[in-house]
Amino acid sequence: MRNIVLLEPEVNEAYDPLRSLNYAWDCIRVPIIVPLLRIAVYICIAMSIMLFIERVYMAIVIVFVKCLGKKRYTKYQLDSIKEDLEKNKNYPMLLVQIPMFNEKEVYKLSIGAVCGLSWPSDRLIVQVLDDSTNEVLRVFFLIQSNLSFDCMKIYDSINDSRETMCKALVELECRKWIEKGVNVKYETRNNRNGYKAGALREGLKKHYVEDCEFVVIFDADFQPEEDFLRRTIPYLLENPELALVQARWKFGTAGVWRIRALHDAGGWKDRTTVEDMDLAVRASLKGWKFLFVGDLAVSIEAFV
Predict the structure, then answer these.
(1) Residues facing 246 on adjacent strands
(2) Pairing with 283, which of 25, 36, 155, 230 sits 20 to 30 Å away (CA)?
(3) Where are the transmembrane segments (predicted)?
(4) For the segment 221-259, what is each residue's pLDDT rounded down to a tens digit?
């Protein structure tokens, strides 16, 4: 009797994605991943060595300066500078720029603080650069003097949106300060090209800026102290190599630029969102120097 051999039917194994991924990982791990990780380790080691050398170098420089009594900074005699400024009444022409965009909550604070700065009114130009997007009911504000009710009540009754009538509100505030004798220039644009940097750049192109020697820049929520200019401008007058005097951080910063240095560095660029740092780097490469005033702070709107 013949032996009958029964063949088992072929079973088609189901596709296993996990097994495929493991196989792909095994194929690329040794020839690709491992060399890349080794390169990354070498780069980290090199950067660590560079950082260590930099720390050692700075320590040597500090010890050297301390031992020899050398000072790598200029010692300013601010009292004599301020006295000379008061005596000769030779105040430089200043431009203060306030760029803003739909700043309904804080525009009064910033404009009021800037207009209250201690500086001769005939030597100060306050430039409000308003890029707000809405001009609804602008006519109400243009005839404000003939109305017997408060325009803010109109605003509250219509819409609580910060964009509604924002331009008109800012312009009205500027008009109030103009009536008080402050030289306020209210500037708007038909577009927002370049955003904040674009607004600052366009503001510097105005004909009345040609007479200004320094430009001070405050954001829309900044509230500088009354003596801010008298505590910063003397540094720039004393040292012609200074491009910028920077105030201390206090939920924000503020600074005074020498307009000549600003133009020499190429002006404001809108290629980045950190336009101030971009300008500072370019000015530094041009050889301009900077000064940080640690005891001068500018407050801004606080968020809780």
Answers:
(1) 255, 292
(2) 230
(3) 39-65
(4) 888 889 899 888 988 988 888 999 988 765 555 788 999
pLDDT digits (tens, 9 = 90+) for 158-192: 444 444 467 788 889 999 999 999 999 999 988 88
- Domain formed by 78-300, architecture: Alpha-Beta Complex (3.90)
Q: Which residues of the chain have pLDDT under 70?
A: 1-15, 69-81, 87-88, 134-165, 249-253, 299-304
Name residues whose C-beta falls within 8 Å of residue 244's C-beta, 6 or more positions apart in sequence. Answer: 255, 256, 257, 258, 261, 280, 283, 288, 290, 291
Pick from 179, 275, 293: which is nearest to 235 by CA?
293
For residue 232, the tally of other CB atoms under 10 A from its CB is 22
Coil, helix or strand at residue 255: strand
Residue type, 41: V
The whole-angstrom separation of Cα 141 and Cα 147 is 9
Give the whole-angstrom CA distance, residue 90 versus residue 202: 28
Q: What is the pLDDT of residue 157?
A: 47
Let me know: does 183 contact 121? Beta carbons within 8 Å.
yes
289: which strand partners? 242
Buried b / exposed e along 98-134 (16+ C-beta atoms within 10 A): bbbbbbbebbebbbebbbebebeeebbbbbbbbbbeb
User: Is-contact 197 282, C-beta < 8 A?
Assistant: no
pLDDT of the residue at 209: 94
Task: Single out the residue of 227, 240, 7 nearest to residue 119, CA to CA.
Answer: 227
What residues are annotated to the active site?
131, 276
Question: Taking the CB of residue 298, how many other CB atoms lie within 10 A of it?
Answer: 21
Residue 224 and residue 113 in contact, taking contact as beta carbons nearer than 8 Å: yes
User: How many CB atoms within 10 Å of residue 283?
Assistant: 21
Contact 253, 263 (CB under 8 A): no
